[in-house]
Amino acid sequence: MAGKYEEIFRESIENPDVFWGRIAEDIHWYKKWDKVLDDSNKPFYRWFTGGELNTCHNALDVHVETGRGDQPALIYDSPVTDTIKTYTYREFRDEVARFAGVLSGLGVTKGDRVLIYMPMIPEAVTAMLACARIGAVHSVVFGGFAANELATRINDARPKVIVSASCGIEVNRVIKYKPLLDEAIRLSKEEAQPSTCVIYQRPMEKASMVPERDKDWMELMADAKPADCVPVLATDPLYILYTSGTTGIPKGVVRDNGGHAVALKWTMKAIYNVDAGDVYWAASDVGWVVGHSYIVYGPLLKGCTTVLFEGKPVGTPDAGVFWRVISQHKVRTLFTAPTAFRAIKREDPQAELVKNYDLSDFYALFLAGERLDPDTLQWAEKALNKPVIDHWWQTETGWAICANCLGIEHLPVKEGSPTKPAPGWNVKVVDDANKEVKAGEIGALVVKLPLPPGSLPTLWKADDRFVESYLKEFPGYYKTADAGFVDEDGYVFVMSRTDDIINTAGHRLSTGAMEEVLSSHPDVAECAVLGVDDQLKGQVPVGFIVLKAGVARSEEEIIKEVIQMVRDRIGPVASFKTATVVKRLPKTRSGKILRGTIQKIADNKEWRMPATIDDPAILGEIEEALTKVGYARARKDG
């Protein structure tokens, strides 16, 4: 007999109109939709055409009106400034309405863009929701992003107003945002520059203001009159979120209002199994898609209490900070990246710090963003004794493509798999000729169109690029750019990005599979494997390993062991003969390993310092490590 998941999944694929139409009843609409799924302009599918709603109204006002006004909406927990502050739904609605009034007073109207360049402070969330309240389109750029990258986003979005803060705070340093913002505006095209910048002055750093253009957040808020919610079309854009493009020109992923609100509110229960009133924590940043979907919109649409955390998994003050936050705020569900847990595991290999906290209210840990290696999965399961759920999604999709949907049916966990496609996601595996492959065979992971509500309908002012980037290579499907397979039971295995499939002497090999082997070594905290050019074999894999704290054995011994492990588990065909120990791996601020940059250094190709890098100094260490094993002989820094 088909389980509950199978039944729900089948309906979502066979009768999407009925399935999503029923779910959409849970959202407040000023005007009901004319059509659930509008496929009159393929491949540009639209959800809930003709419907009118307001996302901010659904995220805040609805809860005040239905008796949740005194429930905490947002808990701001900032170990870097030693601050904890709680806002009820009523307080937060009033704050957002006032800032919406500020934006209206600055001439921002429906459809105008507002760029938000802020740290992890409540004002960032306030600004996002205030835009949604008046129908403006927000574009959040990760705070502290390089000036030239910020300038490209200003050029593309053409914001009427930029909202920023004087600084961001890291573990041991203050990052001044204002000079970066000033430089970005100077670098941007004159016609794209904002008329006004609103600056939130933080106590630890007073930013200098440009006369006429710059306004003080607190001064504007003191005189602001609250603004009401403005109805917008379901198909109107809510936000633009830029993801790096291969051409160097960022891609502006568009999220609509209707499909987004419907899908995200539904996922809170269906995937994460949380109810209104539960405390939900996504340990991410509002500059990333996880921050948009699950710090801000998802939890607030559902009526949960969301945690906004300004800190790191280690060093603020130690590797027990996640347990402290969970315990103190009675967090039910945590969603973060595997890299955060690898950092915690590295500092506290035996999970001793967990014992200091009461985690009895904690229900489940969800991980996404990088592949979840079995070693980190097992470590987290053992440390927490709670469900640890891997799920797979992308900036473009806005929510999980595959997940163990705990609110529908808790399926058995298979190591290395984010379980099965979430309802709405018709995942297939195809070969280069766009033909479906057999169960267990590796190919390109694609999603049959139409994509479900909440995923990107297009790119900002770039319909052709949307088609070119995602729909052209596999007609009838969305290209995830990930490779993998689906097993006999329907479980999806995401092996690596399609560009991480390397060709070694005619054999197609997954670097992800090799990483899985390396990370299972007891002394390895985290690792990366990538293919580097080889005259004889085309490409050969090279491994980079970071050791756990307190490992006393020699590096040579450990390297010899991991090479043997790959040989034993994948076979000599892998040609895995080179590995090197590094202190840390270069990553983006969201925790993704910068494999492409390491590869370019190894292959002596020109490379640019990635705008998203967390610490540029690490690339020097990587270069030294590569030189030690015979690569990166001539640096060509682009």
Descriptive overview:
Mean pLDDT is 92; it is low at 634-638. With 638 residues, the protein is α/β, with parallel strands linked by helices. The longest helix has 17 residues, at 89-105. Helix 1 crosses helix 2 (16-24), helix 3 runs antiparallel to helix 4 (89-105) and helix 4 packs across helix 5. The termini are far apart. The strands form 10 sheets. It has a 7-stranded mixed sheet with strand order 5-4-17-16-18-19-20, with helices on both faces. The chain has a 5-stranded parallel sheet with strand order 7-6-8-11-12, with helices on both faces. Strand 6, helix 5 and strand 7 (137-140) form a beta-alpha-beta unit. The protein has 2 domains: 4-311 and 391-484, Rossmann fold; 505-628, ANL, C-terminal domain (GMP Synthetase, Chain A, domain 3).
Structure characteristics:
single chain; 638 residues; alpha/beta; Rossmann fold; GMP Synthetase, Chain A, domain 3; 2 domains; seven-stranded mixed beta sheet; five-stranded parallel beta sheet; 18 helices; 31 strands; 31% helix; globular; disordered C terminus
For the record, what is the CATH homologous superfamily label of the largest domain?
ANL, N-terminal domain
The CATH architecture of the largest domain is 3-Layer(aba) Sandwich
| Total count of strands | 31
- Shape, principal axes of CA atoms: globular
Helix content: 25-40%
Low-confidence stretches: 634-638
CATH class of the largest domain: Alpha Beta
Strand arrangement across the biggest beta sheet: 5-4-17-16-18-19-20
CATH third-tier fold name of the largest domain: Rossmann fold
